[in-house]
Structures are given as C-alpha cells and as structure tokens.
Amino acid sequence: MKKTTLTFEASVLQNAQLDSISKEMLFNAAQTQVVKQGDYLLTEGQICQHIWLVEKGACRAFYDNNHKEINTAFFFEQAFITNMKSLRNNEPSLYHLQAIEATTLLRWRKEELTALYQQSSAIAAYGTAQLEQLAITSEAHADWLKVLNPEERYEYILQHQPQLVQRVSITQLSSYIGISRETLSRIRRRVL
Questions:
Q1: Start and end of every Cyclic nucleotide-binding domain (predicted)?
Q2: Is the pLDDT confidence value at 11 over 90?
Q3: Cα Rg for the chain, rounded, in angstroms?
Q4: What is the DSSP annotation of 109-142?
C-alpha cells in the first residue's frame, strides 16, 4: 500500500471495517486536490461528480438568498464532503462548496466509487455509512435551528462544535446559526 495521509489513516483506516485489499483499493482511487482559500469545489448549477475528504483545512456549504450568503455546513479535517442529491440524481447543485482556508483534500470521482462499490461490498457499506452520517449531521443542524433559540444555538456550538467559533468568521457563523451578525455579537458578549 502507498504511504497514506494522516487523515486517511485516522478517518478511514482506523474507523472502517475494511480488509487490507479494500483499504488499498479505496486509497488508490483517491486523488489529492489542493485548493486556496476562496476556491470552489462545486458551484450552484454544477452537477456534483466527487466525494471529498478534508485532509487539512476547512470548507463550507452555502447558498445565495437575494445576494446574502446562507451557510448550511462546515467541514474540517477528517470530514467527508459532497452534494449527495446532485451526486446521486445527476442534477444541478442548489448550493456552493467552497474552501474557507487553504485546503488539501482527497477526492474520489463518482464513477470510480461506483466501480469500487461493485468490487467490494465492504467499501459500499462504508460509503453508505459516510453518506448517512452527512445526512444525519445536516438533519441535526436543521432540527436545532427549529427548536433552539439563538442563544441556545450558540451555546450548542460552543459545546459540540467549538472549531466553528475558532475557525469560521463571525459573519459565516451568524448565518449558520440563523441570526444577524449583530445579534451574534451581543450573544457572545453575554455568554463570555
């Protein structure tokens, strides 16, 4: 097996119940992609053709609502990224995926993953589990936006996703929480 990256070792090799051949097949199918802060992995209207794993750096998912960016997800080291609906249904993306830091990723093309899924049921099961985790994370965000008040949302972030406070701009964080930048500033002063 080739020398692996730390993220691949930590997120795939350690956590996946894959035999050594399946692990090697999955790793060999990956390409390294390096992007600068502000570069797009996917833009609205494009059809998603990849699944990415963040090796180093950070990315976000967002859409434009009347010239206002609404952030819906953030991805850090060891996180998988894709637009599942676009990837699966071969339809245009409704949102953007963008690097918010200089980022190194591992990238798998849809066709290569499909072939791997056919060759290894263990890889197919692992891929399904990762996509389910993306869906669960997205659903959890939608749920707490509905049931928590703004201060409770910020406290949730502090407890469960502190890297957001450390690595995401206050403007991006406020849209993710579903409040104005000014409201978030007031909440931060009260909470701290």
A1: 34-119
A2: no
A3: 18
A4: EHHHHHHHHHH-HHHHHHHHHHHHHHHHHHHHHH
